[in-house]
Design goal:
By secondary structure, the protein is α+β, with helices and mostly antiparallel strands. The protein is built from 6 helices and 15 strands. It has one domain: Carbonic Anhydrase II (Roll), CATH 3.10.200.10. Strands 2, 3, 4, 5, 6, 7, 9, 10, 11, 12, 13, 14 and 15 form a 13-stranded mixed β-sheet that branches. It has a two-stranded parallel ribbon with strand order 1-8.
Length: 249
Amino acid sequence: MDRRHLIKGFAAQGVCLICAAAARADGAHWGYTGQVGPEHWADLDRKNFVCSAGTQQSPIDITDAVKADMPRISVDWHKSPCKLVNNGHTIQINTPGGSTLTRGDRTFELIQFHFHTPSEHRIAGKSFPMEAHFVHKDTKSDSFGVLGVFLRPGATNASFASLAAVFPARPGASMAADIDPSGLLPASLSYWTYEGSLTTPPCTESVEWMLAKEPVQVDAADIARFVSLYPHNARPIRSPNRRFILDIN
């Protein structure tokens, strides 16, 4: 069996692994530094082999994007009872279903969102203090669609402030809250898109990345609350491997 078939064979496992993180703190045998850091993820568990063998890994530096005529993003997220989880790697908000992202004839359902600091993706070499990842599951396949939103210091964002105020401080801790993720969307949904992967083990590919061009302002003190829990949880930039990066207005 060739490498591409092996990689596709693990795609479905990514769904279960993401959902599992919603219910418990990860065993944390992987991390972001030292012998459990990103360059060693593939050595820690055979399920992570795509982290080194994959050819469409994320994150990447967004450069030389090509203007393209593609459908715009339509987001229909709702306020709903969610679960905030400190999973040992980030603060993750698990959503109950019913919130969707649509692009053209494809519909993705929001299953969770979480945060990284600093931003995992870069724009022409520039990073941002934080990046939010809104992870969606394609309603007709095992693939994912992830909307990335950059966060930068500025005016208070009420949605992020309400989350920051109740971030579970201890790995394994969780709490329930009514959350409206749409408060973290920028005014414009112009975006860059490319084919990539999850940025944490098992680094599953078949991920449709959509990165909002416009960053969202949040209070610097709220960023500091997250940084106090996770000072650095960003995977290093991966090679684009001649992938096309499309620029959609």
